[in-house]
Amino acid sequence: MATSSLSCGVCDLRRINKPTIVWCAECDEGLCTECKEHHSLYKGTRNHRVIPVTEYQKLPADVRKISQYCSKHNKKFQIYCRKHESPCCSKCTVERHNECRDIVDLHDVIQNTKTSNALCEVEETFVEVTENLKKIRQYHKENLSAFNDRRKEIENEINKTRIKINNHLDKLQKDFIKQLYTVEEQENSKICQILSSLEKTEKEIADYQEKIANIKQHATDLQMFLSLRQIEEDVYSKDKFLQSIAEGSEHHLLFYTMNSSIQNIVSEIKSFGEVHIETKHMDIVLTKKKPKQAQMMASTIQLRPIESIKPKMHKTINSNAKHKSVDVAYYLMEELLLLAPITVQYMYATSKE
Predict the structure, then answer these.
(1) Is position 335 within any domain?
(2) From the record, what ranges are coiled-coil (predicted)?
(3) What are the angstrom distances between the C-alpha of 193 and each of 174, 181, 199, 240?
(4) What is the pLDDT of residues 74-133, one digit of tens each?
């Protein structure tokens, strides 16, 4: 369609602005209420089909841009050139398609387009495409759902693995702490035994010191002399005992060695794992009918070569001039002229047949 204006085309020419209520595809313009009535009564347009402008506006924009008239000559398309696959007006045929032989009447080409096999196959193809689109969409929806379910499974597996690792580390820690306490108790027992012996020896030494002080103060010299020998032996034994403890005693320190595998968890294990995608071919069967052969939208029309056209004598015209160059016009179809300049004395006008 040449225009998308909502104003009446006829009234626009009269510089009157009236809203369009119907659209005439033949005239390629909108009509107001008054012009619609004249349009339906005028002999040249009474058979034109009009549609409400609201229905016209429902057509796709690219379809509305398709005009019934030639943009170059402003004449209505009446011819179709199969070679160039384009509609032509009478002037286009003479100017640009005069050497094209595969030209037919446009009406014969388009009259059955809406019921043609090509349109039926296009509609069937759209049905197939719609079905296949639904299948593919459903497939990807299921894939999306499977992705979500698999993500949950992996997350649960990771959580379970983490719990196992935690439980195993907890057990290792518990065993290690138990061992730590056991070693500590063993060493504590040894040290306590030594301390107990030292305390006992310390008490005995204190008793000897008190005994010597009493003997020294209250005993006779003979008693002192005889007792001193025994006291010396006892002191010597205690000193020897302390020497043995001092020589055999060691300073014990508590240390531990970490398992290298546990130490390497932080330094060597950089991630819990790796996420990757595995792809496979889409296992759905698309609806596909038997292969279609390419068909032209135009109807099949029996073409006749120009040599087979036999003109009939319709009228003889005397040119009243000798050897005058005139044009002979053959009417092949409505408004289509093929002009051939030749030198004749008479011009024959043929019928449209």
Answers:
(1) yes
(2) 137-171
(3) 29, 18, 10, 18
(4) 888 889 998 888 899 988 888 888 888 888 988 888 888 887 888 888 888 889 999 999
